[in-house]
Automatic annotation (TrEMBL):
Family named by the database record: Belongs to the peptidase M50B family.
Required cofactor names: Zn(2+)
Protein name: Site-2 protease family protein
Taxonomic lineage: Bacteria, Pseudomonadati, Pseudomonadota, Alphaproteobacteria, Hyphomicrobiales
PANTHER family reported for this sequence: MEMBRANE-ASSOCIATED ZINC METALLOPROTEASE M50B, STAGE IV SPORULATION PROTEIN FB
Membrane-crossing segments per the record: 6-26, 183-200, 206-228, 260-279, 291-309, 330-348, 354-373, 394-413
Stored CDD domains: SRPBCC
Kinase is among the record's keywords: no
Species name: Shinella sedimenti
UniProt entry keywords in alphabetical sequence: Hydrolase, Membrane, Metalloprotease, Protease, Transmembrane, Transmembrane helix, Zinc
Length: 414
């Protein structure tokens, strides 16, 4: 399989997976899980109902305060955009059918998210006695776009059921699973390298290329994580998704447009700091080592330059949307950035038809899942100095990665 065909196939697979995860019209779906727990229905109702006497058993719930016979205010450990605990006001309907108890919860108000996020969400808990305890069935209904959040909710429900069983036995519950652990992410990074290997050829050269790409992805996500830390996120992590790359996750929602711009820019920004040292290393390295440095430099530049494309889901699109407040300014900047990236492709000898086809693919990718979660309050606007800093930072990252590609290609051809 030729390299060009492999790259096209890899892009097609990525496009399909991204569409499935964040854009597929999944619609209204109900997750349903059941578990036999060693407790009475009344005891379980006191734990799982926001109006219950032990509703704060869950590790993520700081308190659950009844406001009336059918409403409660929950305070969560998760921080909002200012670092304060998120609060939610929920409506609760409880019903009894013989020895069985049913509880239905809906979210009325959320201090972090717009009310539209919870329009279709319903949580139902059914508890009925069975030999050995109580059979609790949990149903969560919501409307989904893509299966990513649906899978996340399913994993969280399984963890909650396991933690509840543990709480009843020991008085302590732990909701965290193995996915967040560094060892698990390391295994997923290795798995991603192995899965990418066939696309570059099942030989030593192909393994080296797939390993370089994995390292570049990790460095990119470390840049995002460093920015989160700089803005005061107490807990940041990276989740590696085989074939698709990595996702840096902050510890709270964004507070300002400047924060959005910097956190998005630092993925390519941190990698840009490596370009001058790598070029200097190539100048003093041996022939074999120098060639490996050039290949790494090429992958580093290409991956990050493509991330700077002014597409909605890409880092470049996120930065430009914050920097330019007017539609005319955003369109002009997007055109110039795209033109600069196309020029780099033309400069290294890529066919014009391939460049146009690539832009069409990335434009399609940008249209996938263009919506997002709406915060309750608008983000703090950027000041003129912040726009200047973010704009020149974007320009520097664009120029350095473009130069890295041109330098590496010229040196490899020479």
């Amino acid at each position: 399989m030729s390299t060009s065909v492999s790259v096209v196939l890899l892009l097609a697979i990525n496009l399909g997976l991204i569409w499935l995860l964040i854009a597929a019209p999944v619609g209204r779906r109900t997750l349903r899980l059941s578990r036999v727990l060693k407790a009475s229905p009344a005891r379980l109702a006191g734990l799982v109902s926001p109006l219950g006497s032990e509703a704060d058993w869950h590790p993520s719930v700081l308190s659950s305060e009844p406001l009336s016979s059918d409403r409660a205010r929950q305070t969560l450990r998760y921080p909002d955009r200012r670092g304060e605990p998120i609060t939610r006001t929920v409506s609760v309907r409880e019903a009894r059918d013989g020895d069985g108890i049913a509880c239905e919860t809906r979210v009325i108000e959320d201090s972090a998210l717009d009310s539209s996020f919870w329009e279709d969400y319903v949580d139902r808990r059914f508890m009925r006695p069975v030999p050995g305890g109580t059979l609790m069935t949990v149903e969560q209904t919501d409307r989904y776009r893509g299966i990513a959040f649906l899978l996340f909710r399913y994993v969280q429900l399984r963890r909650e059921m396991k933690a509840l069983d543990q709480w009843l036995a020991t008085g302590q519950g732990e909701v965290r699973g193995i996915l967040e652990r560094p060892a698990t992410q390391m295994v997923l990074a290795i798995l991603s390298t192995v899965l990418l290997w066939p696309f570059f050829g099942l030989n030593v050269r192909g393994l080296l290329l797939s390993s370089f790409l994995t390292v570049v992805i990790v460095l990119h996500e470390f840049g995002h994580m460093a920015a989160y830390r700089a803005f005061g996120h107490k807990r940041v992590r990276m989740i590696f998704v085989p074939l698709l790359g990595g996702i840096a996750v902050g510890g709270r929602p964004y507070n300002s447009r400047f924060e959005v711009a910097v956190c998005a820019l630092m993925g390519a920004g941190m990698s840009a700091f490596l370009v001058p040292p790598l070029i200097a290393l190539h100048d003093v390295a041996s022939r074999a080592t120098g060639a490996a440095v050039l290949v790494f430099l090429l992958i580093l530049g290409a991956f990050n330059l493509l991330n700077l494309l002014p597409m909605h889901r890409f880092d470049g699109g996120q930065v430009l949307r914050q920097v330019f407040s007017s539609r005319a300014g955003l369109l002009s900047a997007s055109f110039l950035v795209t033109l600069a990236i196309v020029f780099v492709g033309w400069r290294i000898g890529l066919p014009f038809t391939l460049l146009i086809a690539g832009l069409a693919v990335f434009t399609l990718l940008s249209l996938i899942g263009a919506g997002g979660v709406k915060p309750r309050r608008a983000l703090e606007p950027m000041t003129p100095p912040q726009r200047l800093l973010a704009g020149f930072g974007f320009y520097a990252a664009l120029a350095l990665h473009g130069y890295a590609i041109v330098y590496a290609c010229d040196a490899l051809i020479a």
